[in-house]
Design a protein that fits this description.
Helices cover 0% and strands 51% of the residues. The chain has no helices and eleven strands. The strands form two sheets. Strands 2, 4, 5, 6, 9, 10 and 11 form a seven-stranded mixed β-sheet that branches. Strands 1-3-8-7 form a four-stranded antiparallel β-sheet, with no helix packed on it. The radius of gyration is 13 Å and the shape is globular. The protein starts with a strand and ends with a strand.
């Protein structure tokens, strides 16, 4: 089993930045793909960014490319999501998730991840 704990959410004005952290513990060897989902009120859940923890390859949903960066610190079993140039439409609950994938680690593959954090609220005001 894997436990995931998110932190770093909060409120920020449009154009600002936040960095989310996801600390993983437990049987982390059972995962090779970690990333972030978000769900806004009235909208479906979407994959935001993922990183292949075995090699570092990343994937992003188009709406955040150039603004968000996912990274990892293997020594701390932690992944980060640096969010710059935030927009009101980025407002959502952000969830960390992880699993082991057989194929490519992509935001599409992340939709079936088994391990999830509790979420952290990100609010971007105009």
């Amino acid at each position: 089993q894997v436990q995931l704990v998110e932190s770093g959410g909060g409120s920020v004005q449009a154009g600002g930045s936040l960095r989310l952290s996801c600390a993983a513990s437990g049987s982390t060897y059972s995962t090779n793909c970690m990333g972030w989902f978000r769900q806004a009120p009235g909208k479906q859940r979407e994959g935001v960014a993922v990183v292949y923890t075995g090699g570092g390859r990343t994937d992003y949903t188009d709406s955040v490319k150039g603004r968000f960066t996912i990274s990892q610190d293997n020594a701390k079993n932690t992944v980060y999501l640096q969010m710059n140039s935030l927009k009101p439409e980025d407002t959502a609950v952000y969830y960390c998730a992880a699993d082991r994938v057989v194929g490519d680690c992509t935001v599409v593959a992340s939709t079936i991840f088994r391990y999830w954090g509790q979420g952290t609220q990100v609010t971007v005001s105009s």
